[in-house]
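Appendix B. Raw example, untouched.
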Amino acid sequence: MNCPLCGKRNDAAFTVFTQERKGKRETQALRCSDCGLVYLMDYQDDRQHLYDGDYGAWGGDDADLERMVAKAKRQAFRRQLRHLQAFLSEGRTRLLDVGTGNGYLLDVAVELGLEAHGVELSAEASAKASLRHPGKIRVGTLEAAAYADGSFDVVAMTDIIEHIADPLTFFAEVARILRPGGLVFIITPNADSLTRKALGRHWFQYKYEHVLYWNPSSLTRLFDRSGFRTLLLRRNSKVFTLSYYHEYFRKYSFLPPLDRIFLALYRFLPSIIKDAPIMNPVTGEMLVIAEKT
């Protein structure tokens, strides 16, 4: 198959196990021998059906569950967006969050004084985000949203580019809607992370919806081809709670039987432990800020 980034033909596939709610799914992946991008062999298959109301809410309309997820997500975004603030020039306040989900990053961006907009595939999630950000959310893909040239100072994409099967077309659109000197703010799994090397084909970031897996080398190649330069690239850490991970392990299978043991023991923990913030420095992700040149 031809690499979706550099076009080089790659023939040596390897097996990975994607993490799914009903257990692991064996699939084939390739690593480009030129740019280093890792991609699933079926990366071009249509996966839009995945992003329904069940995707972001982790399988429920439970109000307590949504409040817990919202709190955890906002805590994580507050820490992450501090890195973006260091690169924002005065007056550069207009931000677009691609794949905004229920709008939790937008909530934090508004706290920081930014004019926050979002675009989201899921109609259900878009409706929830619109309740707090009326008139600021568009439903569908970034390309279909058809923003005007140079509309934004920042395009945020947290946990997004690993879902994009045509990264060059996607980043051409990002570059078009950014003003000169505009920034992209990215969080994505790092295929060269210590967790990936330690867990091999059972890496917890291997998921059916993640079709491309980036590392610093392949991401730099993407920036070079799309007219961006890297300003910051660092390991991403997150602060979540055991309550959050309880819901995560209900959706994704991770190192069984350890995840099942955790789920069994969780119910005996007191609330003060379930809801205590925990720093996770081994997310297997990178946080990247780049500038449109």
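End of appendix B.
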